[in-house]
Amino acid sequence: MSSTRPAIPEGIKRQVRQKCFFGCVICGMPFYEYEHIEEYAQVKEHTVENIILLCPNHHASKTTHKLSKERLIYAKNNPFNGSKEHTSAYKIEPSSNLEIKIGTNTCIGWDISRIKDHHVFFINGESYFTLHADEDGWLTVSLKITDPQGEVLLKFTKGELTVNTNIFDFSYEGNRILIRDKDSKKIILDVRIADNIVAISYAYFMHQGNDGFMVENGTLYTIGDQTIIGMDTGSLYSHNYHGAWGLLNIRKYPNIKKPGGFGSFITCS
Ligand SMILES: [Zn+2]
């Protein structure tokens, strides 16, 4: 007989994530481990009722008996994120070298001596993806990824990740984030994020569900007035002064001035 503990089934893990609102039940952080309230060695089964999400800090607090079972059971029934619109933050550390992959497109070599904020995606005057450099040259990202209708699913604010608690499913395993759609259950966000890379395989960056960018199967699509008006594969953008991809719907926003210094800037009307 094998003494190996079987893995927690994916379906149970998803239900646990949903019940815990995608974060540690104590502090809400969206970087977590699955933990049995009653030890697996005792119960010898994986059930949704007995498993919670704990961040590494609160996991260690439990393991070292600083966090009581009573409090864990209370937190399971009253998870920190349950009454919040988004999770608490998880911070990705800054890096001196950051590679950005958008499908098969690459952005590298930002000239941070001249300008500190570079806009990877700039839509109707608003940045959906910014690379920030601090005084010492350390780089962080701000990122706003939406669903096709423009509802924000997750945000990075200078490296701090927060997730919308009203979504169907979010997982962050290894350095890969996946979000699934409520109705279709299909993946609508697939991104790898670490301190030195942001690699986007599938995502929407939509302004009011009308104008924006979509990444799918290696291609970056530019969408204007809900119509595909541009496609990019294999592009390499480096040392662009202001940013990489810009989009402006001049019919809806006639007063926004088109900024210069983008690798690609499309206007639609
Ligand atoms: Zn915690």
- How large is the count of helical segments? 4
Note the main sheet: 10 strands, mixed
Bound molecules: zinc ion
What is the succession of H and E elements?
HEHEHHEEEEEEEEEEEEEEEEEE
Mean pLDDT: 94
The stretches of 5 or more residues where confidence is low (pLDDT under 50) are none
Tell me the radius of gyration: 21 Å
**Percent in strands:** 35-45%
Q: Any idea what the shape is?
A: elongated
Structural class: mainly beta
Number of strands: 20
How far the N terminus sits from the C terminus, by CA atoms, comes to: 69 Å
Quaternary state, please? single chain
In percent, how helical is the residue content? 10-25%
Tally of domains:
2
